[in-house]
Amino acid sequence: xxxxxxxxxxxxxxxxxxxxxxxxxxxxxxxxxxxxxxxxxxxxxxxxxxxxxxxxxxxxxxxxxxxxxxxxxxxxxxxxxxxxxxxxxxxxxxxxxxxxxxxxxxxxxxxxxxxxxxxxxxxxxxxxxxxxxxxxxxxxxxxxxxxxxxxxxx
Length: 154
Fold this sequence. Notes:
Elements: H1 9-33, E1 40-41, H2 42-49, E2 54-63, E3 67-70, H3 89-100, E4 108-113, E5 116-121, H4 123-131, E6 136-144
Parallel strand pairs: 1-3, 3-5, 4-6
Antiparallel strand pairs: 2-6, 4-5
């Protein structure tokens, strides 16, 4: 978690490079120890879970700790959503500065299977939020594999 504030784009990019270095070092040590530190990939999970139902869960505040996977970018971030790819530095820095300035950011798009959330859209927003110690994030949620809550008719 970073407690100092960023005043410019250079500081935001410095934060990105520090996080990326941490992620790469963690990945190296994880491979040596045999303990995976990567995001869960939705494609593999969806094949095992074979969700029969899908429904819109609406906009929710989701704990960042429950966001543990990705629909299509498993190799771009580690399990703590630290960036792994250098080409994302500009995007990450722009979002970090917008977040610090308090600019409204759209909700991330998540899929929920069981108790785990997978990012469809908003990987960088999740990464920035985690980097500043945020505990939860606003998300548009689609629920897989659970029955839709019953509606009460009066």
